Amino acid sequence: MEAKQIFDDSAWAYVLTLLPPDLEETAAETKALRRRRHVPNAAALMRMALAYAVSDLSLKDIAAWATSSHIAKVTAPALFYRLRKAEDWFKVVLAKLLSDETTNHLVPGYKIRAVDGTVINGPGAADIDWRVHLLCDPITGKFVSAEITDKFTAEGLARHSFNPGEIVLGDRMYATARGIHAVRANNAHVLVRLNPYTLKICSENKEIIAVLDQESQVPEIGIKEWKVLIPVPPDKNGKNQKQWPLSKAIDWMPARIFAARTKTKKVIWILTTLSDTEVSAITALKLYRLRWQIELLFKRLKSLLHFDSLPSQQGPTAKSWILARLLAAALAQKLVDPAGALSPWGYGLHEIWIKA
């Protein structure tokens, strides 16, 4: 979404049709417009928030533009206060915008989701200020869920809400027993890069398997598969998820591990909770390649919307700015037809999938 679509009256009239029709109701429920004063309606507040998010203008500039355009009569401090109070409202509107995103079923009966996160730093920051956690549909390249947390909140599958019939793709940081257990509790499945240092892997007889010691069994060409069990640790506060006795496991999750070699003979380890009747080994490896699409999504957000350049370190307003920029990205998804998933070589992944 470009700034001119916010500043131009005729373009804004069209953007309004893409927003949820109950802006007034949700603004009232979340107390974003508890005192209207010189802000006439929720649409005016949303327009100022989006203008601030997608342009390089300061709050003072946005307030001056809104006043001269007869959108609202506000000062920069008043707008700062409004944006700070609108944080919960932005979350509600964003959730509504993303709730109706359609999904292509690459695997019949399942929806594919890729999970990842990124960090955002304010100007002059020496450390992380915020974390953004996204779920995306790797087939369409659209994000379908978003959450913003402070720097003290780690990445993890348990952060997200999943629906039955979803297959969640993640890199090795998401390969934890508690995270996988949270996904399975919602009747969803995982397909992640295995991290043998954060997971205990056991045989079907509940005996520990040293995964890395099995590397010699992986053929030069083809895929080696193991059926395993993943014990779920009991202590949520344990520093190391592997330093506990198996007798304390609160649950055992059936899973499969695949191993294949790259052209350089390096072994790639993949874990899934899907059974062999649901997804074959070769299909699982093809699916995992789609995880790269969420990396491309973050690159688009950062390059096109300058998503990683906070205008201010002031906490509440910074979070509102991030949410407003995510709202702009969600609206942009509705303004354009999805190009679909692309490989790094420029080919459509759906075409590659069919030919493979």
TrEMBL record:
GO terms for molecular function: DNA binding; transposase activity. The keyword DNA-binding applies. Pfam families: DDE_Tnp_1. GO terms for biological process: DNA transposition. Keywords: DNA recombination, DNA-binding, Transposition. Residues 109-329 form the Transposase IS4-like domain. It comes from the Bacteria. The keyword Calcium does not apply. InterPro entries: RNaseH-like_sf (IPR012337), Transpos_IS4 (IPR047952), Transposase_11 (IPR002559). NCBIfam families: transpos_IS4_1. Belongs to the transposase 11 family. PANTHER family: TRANSPOSASE INSL FOR INSERTION SEQUENCE ELEMENT IS186A-RELATED. This is Transposase family protein. The lineage of its organism: Bacteria, Pseudomonadati, Thermodesulfobacteriota, Desulfovibrionia, Desulfovibrionales.
